[in-house]
Specification:
about 375 residues, single chain, disordered C terminus, 13 helices, alpha/beta
Amino acid sequence: MWEKNSFKILAIVFIVELMIMSANWFVDPFMKFRVNPDLKYFYTYADERYIDSGIAEHMYYDTAVVGTSMIENFNINDVDEVMNVKSVKLPFSGGSGHEFSILLNHLLSQKKANTIIYGLDYFAYKNQLRDDGFKMSEPPFPTEMYHNDLLSNLKYLISYKTLQQSYFVLENTYYKRVSKAYENAFCWYQECKFNAEAVQNFWRDRNETDRKNKYNKKDFNFAALKKNFDTEFLSIINANQDIRFIIFLPPYSYLSWKHADETGSLDNIIKFQEYVLKTLVLCKNVRVYDFQQEPFIYDFTNYKDLYHYSEKINHLILERIQANKNLVTSQNIDRHLKRLHKEGLKWKTIQAPKEFDVIEEEDEED
């Protein structure tokens, strides 16, 4: 009797798992096997590490825009129009250098992109808190999405997350709900306010724990930054001489640099930026652009916090790149680095607006 019941239970489990796998294969919500033009997919912050692999593998493009949240507000149509390309956008919000190494190798293996536009965020190359190189605060990186072996495919097909997303996609498609069009995939600027009040609130909310976690001196020591950059990114550039890399250093607000100085990390970060620029200008397949010394980094109407800028700045970055402005070359790098160090001294001495640190006291009860 026990054996018969066990057999029935196993049979039921097998049938249920087969049904789950069939549903996930049919919907394929993260585009692992194909893109279905009749389905309304989701392009959200939470899904980037899952769906980017499918975008890279199954969509048509000749240019890929890659990076952290610094590239999320690029509109794909805008990229195509300004740069005269056919592009896809592949962000990893808060991504580590190791994660981008996996993504870039997967992307380049598709033999589609001849150009990669990369927002080089120094946070991606800080000393990792986990030995495997993945971002500490994220759920486990979905490595199965970046492999096509049988085990990886099975893991994807039996995943509860895949099933949950399949349901959302089918529901969204059935009810013909409006989902974010791909040209605005992963954008968040519509949900934010860019003004001094937003920056002020972020500045006020900093606390000592926040500061230590964000800018631990051990994480931003120069040797660690250089090693991670060399291993995870420079090696890919050198191994793909036929690919054109357009790299830009994002324009964080000046208060981000002031924040870094408060925690003793600014000197190492500037030293790392200097190393990156000196290294990249020598690469024949690279053009590197620096937006960290722009006047608009002092204008809070461009920011929602210390780091993240509006879509208007994303558009400006594209226009400047296309016009070859902000380009750092072997001919102008000495002048450029001299200005960078001058700005660094300014960031150390300049203060936040006085009202930023003023906290209104609550009325005392009688």
